[in-house]
Amino acid sequence: MDLLRDNELIYGRLLPVEEPHLVERYNKALKAFGLPVTKRTSFDIDRGGFSPQVAEELGDPLYLDPNEVNRRFIILTPSQVDLPVVHTAFSNTSQLLYEFMTRNQRAINALTIKDVIYGEIEDSVSKVEDIEDLLSINQVEFRVLSAEDVLGKAAELGKLVDRLKQEPDAWRDDAMLKRMVELAKVCGDIRENALVPDQVIFRHNAFWTSHFGGLYVFVDPDMTTVISAPSAPGFRRSRPWQVSYLSIADAERVFTFLASTGRIELPRASWIETSGYLEHRAEMLIASLIHEAQPNADFSKLDKVWLQTWIHANADRINREGTFPFLNAAKREIAQYGQLRIDEVLPKHRFLVVRAKPDHPDAWLTNRLISDFVSYDFLSRYVFNKQGFYRDYQNYTESFRSYVVDTLKTSYLKDKVGLRSRLYGLTD
Prior knowledge:
47% helix; 3 domains; alpha+beta; four-stranded mixed sheet; 12 strands; DUF6638
């Protein structure tokens, strides 16, 4: 993973924590969780406070995610809201943290001036043992604490202020007034500084989770759909009138679900021809076939001329595999008729020519699911399914790893927004 780390393709865009007072505050949060403090004087953190360096030091990548449920968080600064989440068991953890931090921006700004905020994203289960445990999570609540108990002191000061306003003789209570002064030294003027978060409960909607080898949950008004391996505990066992269970190995049924619920864009010239989507799929495919046939090939020579030469020399292999001829035929049909008759396409090929409907709330999750059916498209995997990408990367040869890293640097890191807009129609 060193090559990925050196090129900021893993643990990139994290926030350096170097100031002694911030390191001290971070350690106070670790202590509150019952964890050993870090001996490091500097480390990086993501939006939720996870640090790869601290995880390595503690020998526990799940130090903020015990049982991979009820994720812990540590907030040292409001600027964490702009960071990625690099380690999580649920795909929507990043969005939940973003909503919590933006909805409670004033309180977080005020609290982190003097204190560290920490806590857990609590839901209705403490341990996931089967699918029903996951389906029972309808909402989450941020349980928010602070190391110096600024939150508790602000609440106490608020009660004393109310008493002072409501009880005619309260101003004669010297002990109470002295306590209010002490609390104000810590909390400031609570009439101006909102120290208590306004919103801590959020909906838990569609998501992917790493549990049971990877599982998707999509929520529609009348039905919840679970897509996973049939071996997952609880698969097809409960609430068949409310929950539909699809095997992730059943490409036809999964595709039908995505199409019937309006989550995907079918192959039409209006977006296929301007996006270069099929050309991109073909490029990813050929690179994968080369890696399969010649694992130690010099991929630094992989320009258009080299590719064409390899394609001609390996025409029989390519035709037997079948995907490249299909992509060429699809491109011709779309150019001629403006669309592709998807019902005539083999189920295994359908995911090659569709993308998530960009304006659907589940667009990112849907593109992640599509990438599971086109795993050789390492660029799509990296954009939408980093856990899958990192797992695939482990099986690449050194030469192919260098090619993958160079491709991601030049095509994605160079202009993330532009690439996501061109290939996937996404604007965020």
